[in-house]
Amino acid sequence: MGKDLTTSKIDRQNILNNPYAIEEVRTATGISGIVFEGEFKFLKDQLAKFFEVEPRTIDRYIENHSEELSTNGYEVLRGNRLKEFKLALKSGDANDMNVVSVASQVGVFNFRSFLDLAMLLTESDRAKTLRSVILDIVIDTVNFCCTTAMYL
Amino acid sequence: MENISYHLAAGKIDKEFLKEIITSIISEPDYSEDLKLRLLNAISEDLHS
Protein backbone atom coordinates (compact mmCIF):
# COMPACT_ATOMS: atom_id res chain seq x y z
CA MET A 1 0.00 0.00 0.00
CA GLY A 2 1.27 3.45 -0.93
CA LYS A 3 2.10 6.27 1.37
CA ASP A 4 -0.43 9.03 1.83
CA LEU A 5 -0.89 12.14 3.90
CA THR A 6 -3.30 10.47 6.33
CA THR A 7 -0.49 8.25 7.61
CA SER A 8 2.43 10.67 7.51
CA LYS A 9 2.52 13.30 10.24
CA ILE A 10 5.84 14.71 9.07
CA ASP A 11 4.50 15.29 5.54
CA ARG A 12 1.36 16.94 6.90
CA GLN A 13 3.47 19.23 9.04
CA ASN A 14 5.88 20.07 6.20
CA ILE A 15 2.91 21.16 4.11
CA LEU A 16 1.34 23.18 6.93
CA ASN A 17 4.67 24.89 7.57
CA ASN A 18 4.65 26.33 4.05
CA PRO A 19 2.72 29.61 4.49
CA TYR A 20 2.93 30.52 0.81
CA ALA A 21 1.33 27.21 -0.18
CA ILE A 22 -1.35 27.54 2.52
CA GLU A 23 -2.28 30.96 1.16
CA GLU A 24 -2.49 29.53 -2.36
CA VAL A 25 -4.75 26.69 -1.11
CA ARG A 26 -6.98 29.23 0.64
CA THR A 27 -7.33 31.21 -2.58
CA ALA A 28 -7.90 28.13 -4.74
CA THR A 29 -10.52 26.54 -2.48
CA GLY A 30 -12.39 29.77 -1.75
CA ILE A 31 -13.49 28.38 1.61
CA SER A 32 -14.55 30.96 4.13
CA GLY A 33 -15.69 30.67 7.74
CA ILE A 34 -16.58 32.95 10.60
CA VAL A 35 -14.20 35.87 10.93
CA PHE A 36 -12.95 35.97 14.52
CA GLU A 37 -9.79 37.60 15.86
CA GLY A 38 -8.65 38.35 12.34
CA GLU A 39 -8.89 34.87 10.86
CA PHE A 40 -11.47 32.43 9.58
CA LYS A 41 -12.83 29.99 12.15
CA PHE A 42 -14.84 26.86 11.39
CA LEU A 43 -17.20 24.95 13.64
CA LYS A 44 -17.23 21.17 13.87
CA ASP A 45 -20.68 20.98 12.26
CA GLN A 46 -19.58 23.18 9.36
CA LEU A 47 -16.64 20.88 8.70
CA ALA A 48 -18.78 17.76 9.07
CA LYS A 49 -21.07 19.19 6.40
CA PHE A 50 -18.14 20.17 4.19
CA PHE A 51 -16.48 16.75 4.43
CA GLU A 52 -19.84 14.93 4.27
CA VAL A 53 -19.20 12.98 7.46
CA GLU A 54 -21.01 12.71 10.79
CA PRO A 55 -20.04 15.28 13.45
CA ARG A 56 -19.04 12.37 15.71
CA THR A 57 -16.42 11.39 13.12
CA ILE A 58 -14.85 14.84 13.57
CA ASP A 59 -15.10 14.34 17.37
CA ARG A 60 -13.16 11.10 17.04
CA TYR A 61 -10.37 12.82 15.09
CA ILE A 62 -10.23 15.66 17.62
CA GLU A 63 -9.88 13.07 20.38
CA ASN A 64 -7.28 10.94 18.62
CA HIS A 65 -5.20 13.81 17.20
CA SER A 66 -5.80 16.51 19.78
CA GLU A 67 -2.14 17.47 20.14
CA GLU A 68 -1.51 17.78 16.40
CA LEU A 69 -4.75 19.67 15.73
CA SER A 70 -4.11 22.03 18.66
CA THR A 71 -0.58 22.71 17.42
CA ASN A 72 -2.11 23.70 14.10
CA GLY A 73 -4.73 26.01 15.56
CA TYR A 74 -7.71 24.01 16.81
CA GLU A 75 -8.89 25.43 20.12
CA VAL A 76 -11.79 25.33 22.54
CA LEU A 77 -13.34 28.71 23.25
CA ARG A 78 -14.72 29.45 26.71
CA GLY A 79 -15.70 32.47 28.80
CA ASN A 80 -15.21 35.92 27.32
CA ARG A 81 -13.68 34.68 24.08
CA LEU A 82 -16.73 32.46 23.55
CA LYS A 83 -19.02 35.45 24.17
CA GLU A 84 -17.09 37.46 21.58
CA PHE A 85 -17.23 34.54 19.18
CA LYS A 86 -21.01 34.31 19.58
CA LEU A 87 -21.25 38.02 18.77
CA ALA A 88 -19.16 37.46 15.65
CA LEU A 89 -21.43 34.55 14.79
CA LYS A 90 -24.60 36.65 15.15
CA SER A 91 -23.73 38.57 12.02
CA GLY A 92 -23.28 35.27 10.16
CA ASP A 93 -25.32 32.14 9.57
CA ALA A 94 -28.29 31.65 11.93
CA ASN A 95 -27.89 27.85 11.76
CA ASP A 96 -24.39 28.11 13.17
CA MET A 97 -25.73 30.32 15.92
CA ASN A 98 -28.12 27.55 17.00
CA VAL A 99 -25.22 25.16 17.42
CA VAL A 100 -23.31 27.33 19.88
CA SER A 101 -26.01 29.49 21.53
CA VAL A 102 -26.36 27.27 24.61
CA ALA A 103 -22.88 25.76 24.65
CA SER A 104 -20.50 26.72 27.47
CA GLN A 105 -17.51 25.79 25.33
CA VAL A 106 -17.04 25.48 21.59
CA GLY A 107 -14.24 23.91 19.59
CA VAL A 108 -13.16 25.95 16.59
CA PHE A 109 -10.77 25.22 13.74
CA ASN A 110 -8.77 27.85 11.91
CA PHE A 111 -7.82 27.36 8.25
CA ARG A 112 -4.57 25.58 9.10
CA SER A 113 -6.21 23.05 11.44
CA PHE A 114 -9.01 22.62 8.89
CA LEU A 115 -6.38 21.58 6.32
CA ASP A 116 -4.75 19.33 8.91
CA LEU A 117 -8.10 17.62 9.46
CA ALA A 118 -8.52 17.22 5.69
CA MET A 119 -5.13 15.51 5.61
CA LEU A 120 -6.19 13.15 8.42
CA LEU A 121 -9.71 12.14 7.39
CA THR A 122 -9.86 8.77 5.69
CA GLU A 123 -13.67 8.51 5.58
CA SER A 124 -14.33 11.48 3.31
CA ASP A 125 -14.07 11.64 -0.48
CA ARG A 126 -14.08 15.41 -0.28
CA ALA A 127 -11.10 15.31 2.08
CA LYS A 128 -9.33 13.03 -0.41
CA THR A 129 -10.02 15.47 -3.23
CA LEU A 130 -8.82 18.36 -1.09
CA ARG A 131 -5.60 16.46 -0.26
CA SER A 132 -4.98 16.01 -3.96
CA VAL A 133 -5.53 19.74 -4.57
CA ILE A 134 -3.26 20.62 -1.63
CA LEU A 135 -0.48 18.42 -3.04
CA ASP A 136 -0.89 19.93 -6.54
CA ILE A 137 -0.57 23.42 -5.12
CA VAL A 138 2.38 22.61 -2.87
CA ILE A 139 4.20 20.90 -5.77
CA ASP A 140 3.50 23.97 -7.93
CA THR A 141 4.87 26.33 -5.28
CA VAL A 142 8.04 24.24 -4.90
CA ASN A 143 8.40 24.12 -8.69
CA PHE A 144 7.94 27.88 -8.84
CA CYS A 145 10.64 28.40 -6.20
CA CYS A 146 13.06 26.02 -7.99
CA THR A 147 12.58 27.39 -11.47
CA THR A 148 12.58 31.01 -10.29
CA ALA A 149 15.84 30.42 -8.42
CA MET A 150 17.28 28.92 -11.60
CA TYR A 151 16.79 32.22 -13.48
CA LEU A 152 18.10 34.49 -10.69
CA MET B 1 6.25 17.78 -17.69
CA GLU B 2 8.86 20.51 -18.11
CA ASN B 3 9.11 20.70 -14.34
CA ILE B 4 9.66 16.95 -14.24
CA SER B 5 12.48 17.29 -16.77
CA TYR B 6 14.03 20.05 -14.66
CA HIS B 7 14.02 17.85 -11.55
CA LEU B 8 15.26 14.90 -13.59
CA ALA B 9 18.21 16.98 -14.77
CA ALA B 10 18.80 18.11 -11.19
CA GLY B 11 19.06 14.46 -10.14
CA LYS B 12 16.04 14.55 -7.86
CA ILE B 13 14.07 12.02 -9.89
CA ASP B 14 15.67 8.68 -10.70
CA LYS B 15 14.97 6.33 -13.61
CA GLU B 16 12.54 4.11 -11.67
CA PHE B 17 10.54 7.03 -10.39
CA LEU B 18 10.45 8.61 -13.86
CA LYS B 19 9.00 5.34 -15.18
CA GLU B 20 6.25 5.48 -12.53
CA ILE B 21 5.48 9.10 -13.40
CA ILE B 22 5.25 8.40 -17.13
CA THR B 23 3.11 5.29 -16.51
CA SER B 24 0.78 7.41 -14.40
CA ILE B 25 0.56 10.14 -17.06
CA ILE B 26 -0.35 7.55 -19.69
CA SER B 27 -2.75 5.38 -17.74
CA GLU B 28 -4.34 7.50 -15.02
CA PRO B 29 -6.45 10.66 -15.06
CA ASP B 30 -4.24 12.18 -12.34
CA TYR B 31 -1.21 11.21 -10.27
CA SER B 32 -2.14 9.15 -7.20
CA GLU B 33 -1.76 10.72 -3.75
CA ASP B 34 1.18 8.41 -3.09
CA LEU B 35 2.96 9.52 -6.26
CA LYS B 36 2.28 13.21 -5.61
CA LEU B 37 3.64 12.88 -2.10
CA ARG B 38 6.78 11.10 -3.26
CA LEU B 39 7.23 13.71 -6.00
CA LEU B 40 6.87 16.50 -3.45
CA ASN B 41 9.43 14.87 -1.15
CA ALA B 42 11.83 14.33 -4.03
CA ILE B 43 11.71 17.88 -5.35
CA SER B 44 11.78 19.59 -1.96
CA GLU B 45 14.80 17.75 -0.59
CA ASP B 46 17.00 20.85 -0.87
CA LEU B 47 14.32 23.03 0.72
CA HIS B 48 14.17 20.86 3.83
CA SER B 49 17.94 20.57 4.26
Provide an overview of this structure.
The complex is a heterodimer of chains A (152) and B (49). Chain A has 152 residues and is α+β, with helices and mostly antiparallel strands. Chain A has one domain (5-143). Helices cover 65% and strands 12% of the residues of chain A. Chain A has a four-stranded antiparallel beta sheet with strand order 1-2-4-3. In chain A, a hairpin with a 2-residue loop joins strand 1 and strand 2. In chain A, 30% of the residues are buried. The mean pLDDT of chain A is 89. Chain B has 49 residues and is mainly α. Chain B has one domain (2-48). Chain B has helices at 2-9, 15-27, 33-43, 45-48.
Shape of chain A: globular
Low-confidence stretches of chain A: none
Low-pLDDT segments, ≥5 res of chain B: none
Class based on secondary structure composition and strand pairing of chain A: alpha+beta
Mean pLDDT of chain B: 87
Would you count the extended β strands of chain A for me?
4
Largest sheet geometry of chain B: none
Cα-atom Rg of chain B, whole angstroms? Answer: 11 Å
Oligomer: heterodimer
- Total domain count of chain B: 1
- Termini gap of chain B: 25 Å
- Beta-strand share of residues of chain A: 5-15%
Helix content of chain B: over 70%
Quick synopsis:
Chain A is built from nine helices and four strands.
List the helices and strands and how they pair.
The complex is a heterodimer of chains A (152) and B (49).
Chain A lengths: L8 H8 L2 H11 L4 E3 L2 E5 H8 L3 H10 L1 H6 L3 E4 H12 L3 H7 L4 E6 H10 L4 H27 L1
Antiparallel strand pairs in A: 1-2, 2-4, 3-4
Helix pairs in contact in A: 2-9, 3-4, 8-9
Chain B lengths: L1 H8 L5 H13 L5 H11 L1 H4 L1
Feature tags:
heterodimer; A: 152 residues; alpha+beta; B: 49 residues; mainly alpha; 4 helices; globular
